[in-house]
Write a structure and sequence with these properties.
By secondary structure, this protein is α/β, with parallel strands linked by helices. The chain has a single domain, classed as 3-Layer(aba) Sandwich (Rossmann fold). Helices cover about 45% and strands about 15% of the residues. The chain contains 10 helices and 7 strands. A 7-stranded parallel sheet has the order 3-2-1-4-5-6-7, sandwiched between helices. The protein is globular. The two termini are about 20 Å apart. Putative oxidoreductase.
């Protein structure tokens, strides 16, 4: 991994997985550009992690994404790695309209699916161009084990992440039509986390635990430090051709990765489609 990643942009780096990734890549001596909605968190990170660069933007503001990305690419023309990680999660009951409102659902879809789709469109040509010229580039996109194993507590989150995991696979399929140099140098990696102990579910964790029979019976989250260690352990396991793994699944994420590879991926391969 170390020789493949030099300058990495992390979308959504002010909390949770994104912040953990930013801290670990920084500790490995990589040039890290962290983005997020909260300027106070970005400033605190930059003060703590010397040499860390930051950019403030809110991915749910779809109209500003192009300008934000273009500004980053202008300042970092040799940016070789991007992680799209930001997301939100709401819990509501589709049979009880009082538990949600249309604007909240629209915002969740925009943040978890529409914004990642637009960001892929904006960053993919840059990474592709560098790869064609001989530079190793890497595109990481975070989905979720819930993209494969949906749970009733998170209707929009599960649906949106299912869309993103499809997007990752289609991006890889389209890369298969590219010149050999680009295919050889560009790694497209789906990050598939399990339930990790971050702030993603703070607003509804108690409610969801109660729906499962209480905290003693509820499925427990993986500690963030444990997840981060396992993620970076897998990240170092390169394929024989020197590329990164197509998926980095941990815990339940690894189970759904292996299940998909052993089933639908084989169907696609029989059709001659890269998966």
């Amino acid at each position: 991994m170390s020789s493949r990643i030099n300058t990495i942009l992390i979308i959504g780096a002010t909390s949770g997985l994104g912040e953990a990734f930013a801290r670990r890549f920084h500790s490995l001596g990589k040039k890290v550009i962290a983005t997020g909605r909260r300027k106070d968190r970005l400033d605190a990170l930059a003060q703590e992690l010397k040499g860390l660069d930051t950019r403030q933007f809110d991915i749910s503001d779809l109209s500003s994404l192009a300008a934000s990305v273009n500004g980053i690419l202008k300042d970092y023309p040799r940016l070789d790695s991007v992680i799209i990680n930001a997301g939100i999660q709401k819990s509501y009951n589709l049979f009880d309209s009082s538990t949600s409102d249309p604007e909240a659902i629209i915002n969740e879809v925009n943040t978890d699916l529409t914004a990642p789709s637009l960001l892929v469109r904006l960053f993919a040509p840059h990474l592709f161009k560098l790869a064609k010229s001989g530079t190793k580039t890497n595109f990481f996109i975070t989905t979720s084990s819930l993209a494969y194993v949906p749970l009733p507590f998170y209707p929009t989150y599960c649906s949106s992440k299912a869309g993103v995991q499809t997007l990752v696979k289609i991006l890889r399929q389209q890369l298969s039509f590219a010149p050999e140099e680009a295919k050889k140098n560009l790694s497209i990696v789906e990050i598939i986390p399990p339930y990790v102990d971050t702030g993603l579910d703070n607003a509804h964790r108690e409610h969801v635990n109660n729906l499962q029979g209480g905290p003693e019976k509820a499925f427990p989250p993986m500690p963030l430090s444990e997840y981060t260690d396992k993620f970076f352990e897998t990240l170092e396991q390169l394929e024989q051709d020197g590329s990164l793994k197509k998926e980095i699944g941990v815990g339940l994420g690894k189970i759904v990765e292996d299940t998909w590879r052993g089933s639908f991926a084989k169907v696609l391969e029989q059709m001659g489609v890269t998966s």
